[in-house]
Amino acid sequence: MCSWVAQALRIRKRKGDDGPHQRIYQVGQLFSVAEASKNETGGGEGIEVLKNEPYVKDGEKGQYTHKIYHLKSKVPAFVKMIAPEGSLVFHEKAWNAYPYCRTSESALLLLLIYPNEYMKDDFIIQIETWHKPDLGKVENVHQLGTATWKTVEVVPIDIADREQVAPSDYKADEDPAIFKSAKTGRGPLGPNWKKELVTKTDCPRMCAYKLVTVQFKWWGLQTKVENFIHKQEKRIFTNFHRQLFCWIDSWVELNMEDIRRMEAETQKELEAMRRNGSVRGTKASDD
Q1: Backbone angles phi, psi at 25, to 5 degrees
Q2: Average pLDDT rounded to a whole number, residues 64-82
């Protein structure tokens, strides 16, 4: 698992290979997105799915989703202080042309404080992902220009390293260093699992290369907000991929038809969960 972190970038997409291991991983990824969404929804907060449909554009085929994230208790105190009541929602639009995926987010918070015409491109969160069946050794997989690449901070994520997990996020049943799959025999992942994988050429592997672009042009808050978002994205990537690995017995025998049916059911479940019960899931820290 690798994360590429950058400030204020725009990238062009290129096509990649789609092998059998990537298709299996895609099923696991989509299953885990649905399950994680339910874990983060309840008590008026969480995820609302507006659209989940196929798209075709400029020869690119994939799945388009439009979601709203209701985040009242999931943001730090300094954001709550400047946010009008009821404004803490994010719109996420994603174009999943696996193994490439592009996600963009915008905040209703800013649109309420300033006219939309004023903000324009002053607030950007964009995540571009290449999924590659390797061990994360490809440099500049997004093919950035030389000058831009020099501004990129590379942040490796090891899903088996407990030190990379916040104490409040840790769950023993989502720890790849402990988990062993009953259906595949994979796991637990020891401290040298990536080195061991080099010699196991018949063992599936996958790296998600994520390029995170954050731009928040607001005098006095820019650095604080941008750093906070980058930190939270790394936290999300780490926790999500630990879950994906440990949930393998729930998704390894599914196919895409199963996933699409599950997504339709999850969309209905999320609506009911968001209107009832108590707030669930991850909360942001203030540091």
Answers
A1: -60, -40
A2: 81
